């Protein structure tokens, strides 16, 4: 019986030790969010919509549909500044809906095509036009850099959260900032 009591005491001490370690890791060693709201994050939710132009009939109204299974990334500020890190990202569901938690503040939300700048060149390249014809086109680097720097949505997140955010991605027939020859 005395032997069992030693085992029980050891298990109890080990359990207390583990509780202290978990408490420490959760409350002391966890990373701190650098914001004015003491690390509080609030819910931000909305809907992503894709506006698709009709390339065969430019006079037709664009089709609106949920932008499903796409990535939305968030940077601090009101510009898509590539020097700032992506602080959060989310994938939309089948209905184009998304939700994430952010600290109150101003954020730049962007669709996946604006996450990385990459190498930009104005050299002419062969490409296919929206009507399926081969042509030569070149990128207007200044225009495209300006396009990339704009947020798809600016999120001004208050202390109580933000809902009903609508982000629209316009799928144009003509490529953004491309000059066809």
Backbone shape:
elongated
Low-confidence stretches: 26-36
> Cα-atom Rg, whole angstroms?
25 Å
The total count of helices amounts to: 2
**N→C terminal distance:** 93 Å
Order of helices and strands: HEEEEEEEEHEEE
CATH class of the largest domain: Mainly Beta
CATH homology superfamily of the largest domain = Immunoglobulins
Instruction: Give the overall pLDDT as a whole number.
Output: 83
Task: Tally the structural domains.
Answer: 2
CATH architecture of the largest domain: Sandwich
Main sheet attributes: strand count, strand direction, barrel closure: 4 strands, mixed
Question: Which descriptors would you attach to this protein?
Answer:
2 domains, four-stranded mixed beta sheet, Immunoglobulin-like, 181 residues, 19% helix, 11 strands, four-stranded antiparallel beta sheet, 2 helices, alpha+beta
Q: What does this protein structure show overall?
A:
- There is one protein chain.
- The protein has 2 domains: 1-30; 37-117 and 145-172, Immunoglobulin-like, CATH 2.60.40.
- It has helices at residues 2-27, 141-149; strands spanning 42-52, 63-66, 71-76, 88-91, 97-102, 105-111, 125-128, 134-139, 153-157, 162-171, 178-180.
- Mean pLDDT is 83; it is low at 26-36.
- The N and C termini lie far apart (93 Å).
- A hairpin with a 5-residue loop joins strand 7 (125-128) and strand 8 (134-139).
- The protein is an alpha+beta fold and 181 residues long.
- The chain is 19% helix and 36% strand.
- Strands 1, 2, 5 and 10 form a 4-stranded mixed sheet that branches. A 4-stranded antiparallel sheet has the order 4-3-6-9, with no helix packed on it. Strands 7-8-11 form a 3-stranded antiparallel sheet.
- The protein contains 2 helices and 11 strands; from the N terminus they run αββββββββαβββ.
């Amino acid at each position: 019986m005395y032997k069992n009591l030693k085992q029980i005491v050891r298990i109890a001490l080990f359990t207390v030790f583990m509780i202290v370690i978990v408490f420490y890791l959760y409350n002391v060693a966890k990373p701190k969010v650098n914001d004015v709201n003491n690390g509080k994050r609030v819910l931000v939710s909305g809907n992503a919509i894709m506006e698709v132009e009709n390339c065969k009939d430019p006079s037709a109204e664009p089709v609106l549909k949920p932008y499903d299974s796409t990535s939305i990334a968030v940077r601090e500020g009101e510009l898509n500044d590539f020097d700032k890190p992506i602080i959060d990202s989310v994938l939309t569901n089948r209905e184009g809906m998304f939700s994430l938690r952010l600290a109150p503040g101003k954020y730049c939300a962007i669709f996946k095509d604006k996450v990385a700048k990459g190498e930009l060149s104005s050299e002419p390249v062969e490409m296919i036009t929206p009507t399926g014809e081969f042509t030569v086109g070149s990128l207007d680097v200044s225009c495209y850099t300006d396009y990339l720097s704009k947020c798809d949505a600016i999120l001004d997140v208050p202390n109580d959260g933000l809902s009903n955010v609508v982000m629209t991605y316009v799928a144009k027939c003509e490529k953004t900032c491309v000059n066809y020859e």
